[in-house]
Write a structure and sequence with these properties.
Shape: globular
Structural class: mainly beta
Number of helices: 0
Oligomer: single chain
Order of helices and strands: EEEEEEEEEE
Strand content: 35-45%
Radius of gyration: 13 Å
Helix content: under 10%
């Protein structure tokens, strides 16, 4: 089953920025909409953003003013640019192919994710 690989997480101070990347082999990225998810401590994984094949992006309201999502099909990568990070953004971030029927559901196997830790 297809698997996507997340990278770019790390430890950052509050107010800082990170850019996460999502890559996969073949045409998995270029051929599909890709979504970002995150799992905050003690909570279930939640949908954060979706980037369509044409690059149009939808971001959840709670982070829309701080996060942007984009893609580079030629490089087979999807990005999640996060700025003005706060401790509330600490968690594991994942990417996946969102189900057309329910974007909260990922169609591919879940990868390891990338840890984002924001210190106050």
């Amino acid at each position: 089953q297809e698997q996507l690989v997340e990278s770019g997480g790390g430890l950052v101070q509050a107010g800082g920025s990170l850019r996460l990347s999502c890559t996969a082999s073949g045409t998995i990225v270029s051929g599909n909409a890709i979504a970002w998810y995150r799992q905050l401590p003690g909570k279930q994984r939640e949908f954060v953003a979706r980037v369509a094949r044409d690059g149009s992006a939808l971001i959840i309201d709670s982070v829309r003013d701080r996060f942007t999502a984009s893609r580079d099909n030629a490089r087979k990568v999807v990005f999640l640019q996060m700025s003005s990070l706060g401790p509330e953004d600490t968690g594991i971030y994942y990417c996946n192919i969102p189900s057309p029927m329910n974007w909260g559901h990922g169609l591919a196997s879940w990868g390891q994710g990338t840890q984002v830790t924001v210190s106050s």
